[in-house]
Write a structure and sequence with these properties.
There is one protein chain. This protein is an all-alpha fold. It has helices at 8-38, 42-68, 87-118, 122-146, 161-170, 181-208, 212-258, 260-273, 278-288, 292-304, 314-330, 341-362, 371-398. The chain folds into two domains: 8-157, Ferritin, CATH 1.20.1260; 181-398, no CATH class.
Length: 401
């Protein structure tokens, strides 16, 4: 028997470790597969499907070893889409998801390395060594995807140009702004409003000893000004971005009309730079070129790094920017509707610092930092800002200004 040399306690420990490894590989399989299904980039989607297949093979190896050792049939306990539909992934979009997966692959390599020392089962260790090498390849492939390169996956896997084309055509109308990108805009707006008005409220409170009449006047004026400024700025930025894109699209259309072969060669080179073999890249371009409008949009997307569907709506950008800024700006003012003097100042400081921590923690949805370090950093910045402006306000108040 394969497990004859393992004691009962050791066997139980090994089975627990292998079951954990199986669960992790299954979650990776479901995550990669779900991300591939929702990715609008067809070449990247194929690489993600290759990674999903590799995770499935790893899970099969762990499953086989568990059964050999007499363990129970493992049952997947994770989400059917793995981590692909978590709040953090939805908020950050595909690039942040890839970054998180890259980090997870590095952690998996480290964890498997520790198991090499502790597992004590030769057959399982042989599987570990094989899986570690694959995970190192996965880490490199994810890093390449993040840099915009499409590597040829390990294991002689070859990109199927026809399959890529079919997926591109199927998804041609599905390009859109990164899922959850509005969360980042909203966090930025709340942060901007909170920081600006907290500084105003602190300064005026220092100068007037917390006189609610003056604090509310200054705070509400600042709130309105900040919200309008943020909203109008977001509107103009989104509108300008769309106008620039449409102008570039018109120039691209004229260039294709004047020299179609050059345009096709340019698109082929873009795909080759990303890792596609020349023959596959040329096949893709030939198929795409059958639809001139599709050729225009794909080439423009490669050159400009975006698509019309991915551009922000100016009105939505203006509304979300103004509203989120107003929400953040209102927080430091609230206590002065009900209190005045030093009590109102203290209450405003406490509620504002709590809000700073919450906004900082929320930023972890679109970054890879831990929520507590991001929140703590934001709180410290807010505290320093409030202390400095309050001190300046006190000095100005004593100076009779």
């Amino acid at each position: 028997m394969a497990n004859a040399t393992l004691s009962s306690a050791k066997l139980k420990k090994v089975l627990a470790a292998l079951e954990g490894d199986w669960q992790a590989e299954m979650e990776g399989y479901h995550t990669y597969l779900a991300l591939a299904d929702q990715d609008t980039d067809p070449v990247r989607a194929q690489v993600l499907r290759h990674l999903a297949g590799a995770e499935w093979e790893h899970a099969a190896l762990w499953h086989g070893r568990i059964i050999e050792l007499g363990g129970p049939e493992p049952v997947y306990r994770g989400n059917p889409s793995g981590d692909a539909h978590s709040l953090a992934t939805r908020a950050g979009g595909i690039r942040m998801a890839l970054r998180r997966l890259e980090i997870e692959e590095s952690r998996a390599i480290a964890a498997y390395g520790e198991q090499l020392k502790a597992l004590g089962d030769e057959e399982s260790i042989a599987i570990l060594e094989h899986v570690i090498e694959d995970e190192k390849d996965h880490y490199k492939e994810l890093g390449a995807l993040l840099r915009g390169h499409y590597p040829q996956p390990a294991g002689a896997h070859k990109i199927d140009a026809q399959a890529v084309l079919d997926e591109m055509l199927a998804k041609r109308n599905q390009g859109r702004k990164q899922p959850g990108s509005w969360i980042g805009d909203a966090i930025y707006g709340v942060n901007d409003g909170l920081g600006a008005i907290f500084g105003i409220v602190s300064g005026v409170s220092g100068a007037t000893a917390g006189d609610s009449k003056y604090v509310l006047l200054a705070g509400l004026s600042g709130l309105i000004a900040s919200a309008l400024s943020m909203g109008s700025g977001a509107y103009l930025a989104a509108k300008s971005e769309r106008e620039i894109y449409m102008a570039e699209l018109a120039r691209e259309r004229e260039a294709i009309k004047m020299n179609g072969p050059e345009a096709r060669e340019l698109l082929s080179l873009y795909y080759q730079v990303k890792g596609l073999p020349e023959e596959d890249a040329q096949n893709m371009v030939n198929h795409i070129a059958n639809d001139p409008e599709q050729l225009l949009r794909v080439l423009a997307g490669e050159r400009l790094g975006t698509s019309e569907e991915a551009l922000a709506n100016p009105l939505i950008s203006a509304g979300s920017g103004a509203l989120s800024t107003a929400v953040g700006a209102a927080i430091p003012i609230i206590p002065f509707f009900f209190m005045q003097g030093i009590e109102a100042v203290i209450a405003a400081a406490v509620i504002s610092l709590i809000a700073h921590f919450a906004v900082g923690a929320a930023k972890s949805l679109i970054t890879v930092r831990s929520w507590w370090s991001s929140g703590l950093e934001m709180t410290v910045v807010g505290a320093v800002e409030g202390a400095v402006t309050y001190g300046i306000g006190v000095l100005l108040g004593k100076g009779g200004m």
